[in-house]
User: Fold these one by one.
Assistant:
Number 1:
Amino acid sequence: MSKIKILSVFGTRPEATKMAPLVKALERDGKHIESVVCVTAQHRQMLDQVLDIFDIKPHYDLNIMQQNQDLAHITTAALNGLMGVIRDARPDLLLVHGDTTTTMAAGLAAFYSGVKLGHVEAGLRSFDMRQPFPEEANRRIVSVLADINFAPTEQAKANLLAERACAPENIYVTGNTAIDAIDSLVSAEYTFKEERLNSLDWHGKRIVAVTAHRRENYGRPLVNICNALKRLVEDFADVEIVWPVHLSPAVRNIVFDILGNNSKIHLTDPVDVADLLNVIARSYMVMSDSGGIQEESPHLNKPVLVLRDVTERPEGIASGCLRLAGTELADIYGHAAELLTDAATYEKMAAAENPFGDGKASLRIVRGILFHFGLVESPNID
C-alpha cells in the first residue's frame, strides 16, 4: 500500500476543535496519506466557526442540522448520509472523535461498510450511562466497533483493556489533540471577535468563565447553576461572569430568565474557539460541564470546577487541576467561594500538572496509523 485514504468525520464544534490539528497533520503527510474530510454539521453555525479558523474545507457536507432536532434525527440522518459518503470515497480508514452522536453514527456506518475504524480520544469513561447523556453510551458503542484506539491517557487505555474492547497492540496512548492547537490560538494581544468582550475589565475584576449545556443538566440542575452564579456576583464585589450561552432553547430560556439584565453577568451567543480559549486564558477560573474545557483550561493554568456529579476525566481530579462541584446550588457556590477566598487552594489548583497532553497528540496519531498499516517501522515520533 503506497497511500492510505483516511476519511475524518465530525459534526460539532468540540469535535472540530479537537480534530482540526489532526486533519492538518494528516494533510501534511502527503507521501503516505490522502486526507478526506466529511462533516455532518450536527451543529451548523458553531462548526463553521472552527472550519474557518483552521481553514478546513470539507469534501463532503451532510448539513443535517434541523431546528429542535432530537437524537433520533441526528443518528438516522448522519448514518444514512455517511453510508453514501463511504460508498463514494472508498476510504481505507474512517476516523472519528470522542463521543458525539455523529461519532456513534459514523462508527456504525464504517462497521456496516466493512471499513476500518479509528477512534480518537478513546477510552474515556464515567461508568454511568446517563452521565453524560448520550455521550457515555456513544463512546462505549464506538469502542466495540473500533479497529484502532487512540487513548489520550494511560487511564483511558486501562479502561479499554479492562473491557477487552480491542487487542492491546491496537491501542496507542497519544495525549489529547485539544492541547495541540491552544498555544497557536491564545495571545495576550488577542482581540475578541465578540466585541463586548474587549470592553471588560480583565485586570481589575476576577472574571469567571462559565459554560453549561449538557442534557443531563437541563431543568433543575441548570437552575441551580444559574442561582449559584447570581449569588456569587452578589457576594463578591470584584467578581463578574462571562458565559457564551449554548443555542439550545432548553439552556437559553433558563439562563436568560435568571441571569439576564445583570450588569455583572455577561451573556453572549456562542463564541468561536479562539475567543473561548482567550476568555479562559484571561479568566480567574472556569466553571463548566464541558468535557474539552476540562482538558484545555489546565493547560492555561486555570482551576476548573466541573458542573457535574461525575467526570470521565478522573486524571484531572487526581492531579488537582479539576474539582467536581456537582449540580446542587450550595455545593457549586461553596466550591467557587473557596477558590475566591482561599489563595492557597486556588494556587494549588492553578499550578497542578495537566495530565492530558503535551501538544504532540496529532503527530502520535498519524504515526500510529502509519505503523498500523505497515508504512513505518515504529509508532514512536521520537
Number 2:
Amino acid sequence: MNAVRSLYALVVLGATVLAGCGSSPGQPQKSSEMLAPSDVLEFGTLYGENCAACHGADGRGGAAIPLANPVYLAIVDETAMRVAVGNGVRGTSMPAFAQHAGGMLTDKQIDALVGGIRSRWYRPDGLDGASPPPYAATSIGNPQRGQGVYLTYCEVCHGRKGESGPDGSAITNGSFLALISDQGLRTAIIAGRPDVPMHDWRGYIPSKPMSDQEVTDVVAWLASRRVASPGQPYAASNSSPQ
C-alpha cells in the first residue's frame, strides 16, 4: 500500500514539473507583456501622451484651443482634423504627428485619436440650431473692411488696436500672430474659447452674429499685422557695444 502511495506521489510530482516547464521562473505572462509604442490604440493613452499638454487633460484647453468645445467639433470635419494631427500646421506650434511626416504615430493611432475626440466630446445639439460660418474661408478677405469689423466686434475686449483690453489679450502682438495660422484665427473667432472665456461668432454683439465674410475680413486684417521678425521689442541700436 505504501508503495502504491509513493508511486502516485511521484506521478503527481512529475506532472506538476512538466506543467511548469512552459513557464520559466521570471518569464512574463502574456497578459503582462508591454505593447510596442506603435501598437497602442487606447484613446486615453494616446491623448495623454500627445495632446493633453497643449489642449488640456480633459480637452478643455490650455496653450491651444479646447478640443471638447462642441462648436469647434460641429464646424470641423474628421478629414480636416486628421490632416492637422498628421501633418501639423506649418508656422505654428502644432507639430506633425504622423510617421510619414516625421512624427511617431501610425495612421491607425491618428484615427483612434480623432475618433475618440469626436465620440467623447461631439454633441449633435452643440450649435443649438444655429448655422455658423464654414470652417474654411470661402472667399478672399479684405484687410480694410476687416479693420472696421474688428472695431465693431472685437475692440470692446481686445482694445482699439488689438494691444489688449479689459477682457481680452493682445491679438496684434507679433509673437502671438507668428504662432497662429489664419485658420487658427478663423477657428477661434467662430468657435470661441470657453476656457478663456471668449464668445463664439454669435456672442460678440447680442442678436448680431458675425457673417462668413466678416470673419474672413477680420482674419485678413489680423494677418496683415504680422511682422517679419517677431519677438524683438527694442529698436536696433547703431551704437557700438560698451
Number 3:
Amino acid sequence: MSKIQLTLFNIDIVEYLISYFKSNIAAYKLNELTNALCADIPSINDTHPLAMEYGNLLSAGENNYTSLLPAIGIEFISDSPSALNTLGRGYEVIEIDQAFHDAISSVDVKNRIRDGYIASDAALTELQDAIDDADPEKIYATSIRDINTVTVNISIWSNNVKVTRTMMYVVKSLLQRARLDLSSKGIKNMRINTTGSLYNYDFSETLFGVEYSLTDMTQSIVNIEIDTALSTIKNVEEVTKTGIPANKTYAGVTGVGVGQ
C-alpha cells in the first residue's frame, strides 16, 4: 500500500510578478525617463534590494563595491487562512485519471512550483503506475481545499529620489495591469498599499525607497491524498466514512491547474 501526496494551488505569485515585470517594464523606457540613471529593465529579484546591496558590499570589499541599485525586490511575506474558510472547508472524493497525471507531468519539475504544482517526478511515476494498474484506468483520492490570504511586498530603491519616484509610478501601473491577469488565474482581491519617503544611510550615500504591500489576495490550495490501494469509490468512502460521491468533473481542483 502506498500513499501519494500532491498539492495544487493557483500560481506562485512572486514568480509570476517577477516574470510579468521583466516582460513588460521595458515598454516604459525607464532609461530615457530617468536620464540614463536606470536601465529599461532594472534588477528585479525575489530579494529585498537592500539585502542584495549588503551582500554585494560584503563580498566585494571596500575598494571593489559597486551599487546594484536601482532595483526592485518582490518578496513573499505571509499567508493566513482566509475568512472564506469560515464557510466550511471543501472536502471531497475526486477521480484521478491519465489526463490529471498528464496535466502535471507536462510541466518540467523545476517550474512546477511556479505553475502551482507541488509534485515530484517520483510521485508522478507512482501515480502513473497506479493508473496503469487500475481497471478501468482511474483511481480515487480525497482532496481538501483551503483558501489562504497572501501578502507580497514590492520594494523599489535607488540613490536618486527622482529615479525612485519615477519607478514608483511605473511599478504602480504594472501592478494595476497585473491585477486583472492575476484575477483570471484565480488570485482575487489584491489590495495595493503604498509607503513612500523611505531612506537608508548605511551606505556611502543616501538611498531612497518606496514599498508596496499587496494584501488580501486569496488563493486556493488543494491537498490531495491518493491511496493506491483504494481503487474504487466504495473503497474510499469506506475508509473516509464520508459517503461523499466522487466528483467526475474535477471540481475538487478546478481553478488550481487541473480542469481549468
Number 4:
Amino acid sequence: MLIQLHKILDVAQCYDILRTTRWEDGVTCPTCGSKEIVKNGKDPIQKECQHYNCKSCGAYFDDVTDTIFSGSHQGIHQWITVLYLMNLNVSMRQIASELDFSGETAQSMCATIREGVVKKSLIPSLAERLRLTARAAPECYVVSGHKGQPHNVIKAGRKLRRRRLKDKRGRGTSADEKNPVFGMVQRGGLVSLKVLPNVQRITIKPIIEAHVEKGSTFYTDEYNIYNKVASWGYEHKTVNYGEGEYARDEDGDGKYEVHCNTQEGI
C-alpha cells in the first residue's frame, strides 16, 4: 500500500518548524521590523496558522506572510513534502505522484522554491564565500526545442521540426537559437548559471566580478574569452581540450586539481 508522506505529516508541527526557522529571535513585523507583536487569533481555515498584530505600525500578518507559502492553495505540509523530496533529488514526476498533483502544479511549486532560494542568495554573501576558492567556468549551448506540440505531431505521423537555423555550427548566440549558458561553480559549494545573449569578454566580465571576490582561482578551458581573467584580479589556470588535456597535476601530489570537470558535470 502506498502511503503519501504529506498525509501523515503533522500540520501544527510544520507551522512550529516554520515559526522557529523564520523567527529565531522572536516574531518580527515584516512591514517595519518591530518586535512589539501581539497574537491576533488563528486563521479561520488553517487553524494551526497564527495571526499577529504589530503594535508599532499596526500591520496585520500571519506565519506565512511574505513567504513562498503565502496565497498558495497547497498546505504547508505539502510544501514541506516538496522541499524534502527536492533535497533527495527526486524527479518532478515522482514529486507529482507522491502528492497526487498534476505535473504543472509540482513544477510550479519547485520553481517557486528555487526562485526563493536565489532571492535569499545575495551577491555580496556569495562573493564572500567564494574567496580564494577554486572555480571552474566553462560554457555550454542549448538549442531550442521542437516546434509546436511534439506529442500531437507524433500522433499525426509527421516528423518533428527543430526550432533552429540550419547549417549553423560552432559557438552560438541567442539570435541564432543556440543559447549560451555561462556557468561558475565553487568546488564543493555554490553554483551560478546564467543564460546570456552571447559569450564575449564584455558579457562575462561583470558577471564574474559580481559573483567572485578578487584573488579567487579560476580553472577554465583554453577558450580565448578567458585570456583576460588574470588581468581582472584572479589567479587563472587552464586545461587544453584541443590537445587532449582534461586534467593536470601541477604540484606532483598525485591529485589532478587543474580541471573543469565539476562544471562540465553540472
